[in-house]
Amino acid sequence: MRAATAAAALALAASVAATTPALAASTAHPAFGQHTTGFAGGSNWGGYVATGSNFQSISGSWTMPQVTCNTSNDLFAPWVGIDGYGSQTVEQTGVQVDCSSGSPVLSAWYEMYPAAPVYFNDQVNSGDSFTGSVTTDGSGTYTISLTDNTLGWTESTQQQLDGQDVSAEAVIESPTQSYPSFNQLDFSNVTVNGQSFDAVGPQAIDSGQYTETALQGGSFSIVPSGAAPARHHHATAPLTTTPRY
């Protein structure tokens, strides 16, 4: 997540709706964002993505796992969002795990890619349950909310972006192409346009190091590659995208 300049920070602050979230400065990492391929035999995303048109909302919950840092380059986040698979923007929110200090540091964030992520100042712990949502009015206004169901806080912001609304996803991502180790991460109650995720026919995407279990009732798990049973709807290649690095 590239460091935001003072001017960019002021521009972001000016675009936030009346209920302004508590924000923290970004850190010097690549941004979370578009789907790309070629990383570790898979892609920079792992999870499920629905493609098409007129995606107006996605909501989903997940629990942050206990992680072990393997290198100081390890960085990943589970998130939900709109766009990014075959488009040049992503409207998203999630929780990152950053190992640059040698130990896992968790931070909650939202991002209007290609702008840098914006971080919330709220406490985040391994084992916490989160619910994230992104909705749009179809005219470039996006409402992004993130709730820590365990600690009881909610952040919400409204942003403007010329998005295409051509995909909706619940995924994990490593912008540095380096994941810490964890046993399992569970997504649940994922809905798109008010329907269960299953109903919109999402495709599975492997991240290389981790893979996803079968999607059932809007729920699935991310587990180490080789540990998941067979599932359907595998995405073989993205639409044309530009690499972010």
From TrEMBL:
Task: For this UniProt record, give its keywords in alphabetical order, as a comma-separated list.
Answer: Signal
Question: Does the keyword field hold Signal?
Answer: yes
Region listing for Disordered, in residue ranges: 224-245
- From the UniProt record, which GO molecular function terms apply? glutamic-type endopeptidase activity
* The keyword Signal is assigned to this record: yes
Please name the Gene3D superfamilies in this protein's record: Peptidase G1 (2.60.120.700)
| Chain intervals with Low complexity compositional bias | 236-245
Signal peptide residue numbers: 1-24
Residue stretches spanning the membrane: none
Q: Which InterPro entries match?
A: ConA-like_dom_sf (IPR013320), Peptidase_G1 (IPR000250), Peptidase_G1_sf (IPR038656)
Matching CDD domains, A to Z? Peptidase_G1 (cd13426)
Q: Which residues form the active site?
A: 173 (proton acceptor)
Query: Pfam families recorded for this chain?
Result: Peptidase_A4 (PF01828)
Which is a GO BP term held by this UniProt record? proteolysis
- Protein's name according to its UniProt entry: Peptidase A4 family protein
The scientific name of the source species is: Kitasatospora acidiphila
